[in-house]
Write a structure and sequence with these properties.
It contains four helices and twelve strands; from the N terminus they run βββββαβββαββββαα. It is α+β, with helices and mostly antiparallel strands. A hairpin with a 4-residue loop joins strand 3 and strand 4. The N terminus is likely disordered.
Length: about 350
């Protein structure tokens, strides 16, 4: 469901996770969630939905300004509320007060009222369906937006070595079950998409690429944990040119806003000391590592580490979006240096005939 359209406010199945409902404000999803069943061993587990069913955006974390009404789905009168004191379910009672049973005439009257109401809605629905069959008269479907497609077998390229890129990027088997690996939009295209954008520089070598594959590892909360991008250039000299361009742009990066030549945000980039001075080297693999901050026009500052690895005509970028502290495990490794080493070893193991080096 996209913002600004959808059913009326209420609790609906969470489009990001199974086993819980999420509150729809009438215009957008909120951070208010509620489990799908009674607490305890019979509660449905909360797990990420398959990649093909989740929206592309991260699930919201901000809760409603006013607590939403307590849900009524799948609960019994004796259900104990969750223990989170900040949730909207504070208004629920774990055990409602005892009430006197209704007498027979009250039961009969209630059944009559319910029957009249149900009959009214059945007739109204039949008349509405008969009067119009156009899709425009129906409420918008309650379906989440589709996420980026799954990682393809190989990039969209006729380069005979393109399929090997699939083995070089981060894979689903490399990450914990709480993370998912997805292909970025346009991530298997080598034209019309950017590989090198450090300091919003100009990189003529972008026209020399022959195959490309970029995927992203998403943590359970939907944030980007790691992105990897493997590129095949036409010749080893072309890949070497790309590395030389990176060095030149980083060395001459101005201390003011730089407008992107490819439509990326305008940012100011400030480089820190190279993070890889103590990292081990892998024979045959050339490495450039950059730690830097970017500040956009609104003053938002982000810190990142970008590592570029080359062998022959192969170049791989490993991008850490939150490099401080332990990282989500990749092939069992949790530091920036060790995760980088995983990809260096993969590049070193590629047959030289496939990449010209």
């Amino acid at each position: 469901m996209s913002e600004g359209a959808g059913p009326t406010a209420g609790w609906y199945p969470d489009p990001w996770f199974t086993g819980q409902h999420r509150f729809w404000s009438g215009r957008a999803w909120t951070g208010d969630v509620f489990p799908d069943g009674p607490a305890g061993s019979t509660a449905a587990p909360v797990v990420p939905r398959p990649a093909s069913e989740r929206p592309p955006s991260s699930p919201p974390t901000a809760r409603s300004a006013q607590p939403p009404p307590a849900p009524t789905f799948a609960y019994t009168a004796t259900l104990a509320p969750p223990t989170d004191p900040m949730g909207p379910w504070d208004l629920m009672e774990s055990e409602p007060p005892r009430r006197r049973l209704p007498v027979t005439w009250q039961v009969n009257a209630l059944a009559l009222v319910v029957g009249l109401i149900v009959g009214f809605f059945v007739v109204e629905r039949a008349v509405s369906d008969h009067g119009s069959n156009s899709s425009a008269s129906r409420p918008p479907a309650f379906t989440p937006q589709q996420p980026p497609s799954a990682v393809p077998t190989s990039p969209a390229s006729d380069d005979p070595s393109a399929p090997l890129l699939q083995r070089l990027v981060v894979r689903q088997v490399d990450v914990p079950p709480t993370s998912t690996v997805q292909l970025l939009d346009g991530g298997n295209l080598d034209t019309g998409e950017t590989t090198l954008d450090l300091c919003n520089g100009t990189y003529p070598s972008e026209a020399l690429r022959g195959a490309r594959l970029q995927v992203v590892e998403l943590a359970r909360d939907g944030t980007d944990a790691l992105s990897t991008e493997a590129v095949l250039y036409r010749t080893p000299a072309d890949a070497a040119q790309a590395m030389t361009e990176l060095q030149h742009v980083a060395a001459s990066c101005p201390a003011h806003d730089v407008v992107s030549p490819v439509g990326e945000p305008t940012v100011t980039t400030r480089f820190k000391a190279p993070p890889d001075r103590s990292w081990p080297q892998v024979a045959g693999v050339t490495r450039q590592a950059y730690a830097f901050t970017t500040t956009d026009a609104s003053g938002q500052t982000d810190t990142a580490v970008a590592v570029y690895l080359r062998r022959g005509r192969l170049l791989e970028g490993v991008y850490f979006h939150s490099p401080a502290g332990a990282q989500p495990a990749v092939d069992g490794q949790t530091t920036v240096a060790d995760i980088t080493h995983v990809f260096e070893q993969r590049i070193a193991a590629v047959p030289g005939a496939s990449i010209g080096g």
